[in-house]
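Appendix B. One record, verbatim.
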Amino acid sequence: MHPAGLAAAGTPRQPSKRRVPVSQPGMADPHQLFDDTSSAQSRGYGAQRAPGGLGYPTASASPQSAFLGDPVSNMAMAYGSSLAAQGKELVDKNIDRFIPVTKLKYYFAVDTMYVGKKLGLLFFPYLHQDWEVQYQQDTPVAPRFDVNAPDLYIPAMAFITYVLVAGLALGTQDRFSPDLLGLQASSALAWLTLEVLAILLSLYLVTVNTDLTTIDLVAFLGYKYVGMIGGVLMGLLFGKIGYYLVLGWCCVSIFVFMIRTLRLKILAEAAAEGIPVRGARNQLRMYLTMAVAAAQPLLMYWLTFHLVR
């Protein structure tokens, strides 16, 4: 046997050393079926983290900032804001022309003390002495500072309460229906509108130069709903006797209230103009004042007598 063969048979066989290629950092393992991209993504993802630490990549420039940085867009925004301001001013002017919002704010400038005093004045006008409306620099003070100033809060609340009380009265008599309640409310509004138009026409025909406005008339004529509520409630509690007693008292009270209030608005202007007390025009003004005051009790009875049985 060959000595080389004996030597090969006598010595143990050393394992063959194969050179494994070292993978570079940017190269994938040749034995892998798919490339491992998790490390590269994690490195890229971590490198682009937002300053807040939320893990989102930061954008170089947002669309909003790019839009605002454009001078053409800035001019468009300025032009749009100016158009919006002009439109708002135009709407405000038109609203004030048809609906005097600033004037309405004056008639609703009331507080709890004023409401209490005004209600007492409506039920007991005989104890009141000074009926002059207070002025401050040729402008009447707010109603909360002067109990003689007209307001729209009490007439509005009284009208709503009157409609509710009318519904209660109709319900206790098994006559309630939405149509009948709507007819009751619309009738009250129609009579109020007719009153205002008739008084304005009469003032025009008599040629009365007065500071009595249409809103003042609505306020003064709306005070009668307070007495109507009291009459209907007493009628529900005590029958027709309570209704006639309370309504009669309220009718006399509203008559006195209207006489003492309107005479300062109508007759005082005549005295300021130098018209004689016994003159024909002054007598017409007196008749007009008494007619307006006398119409209040009649309407109070007409709008409530069918609610009490």
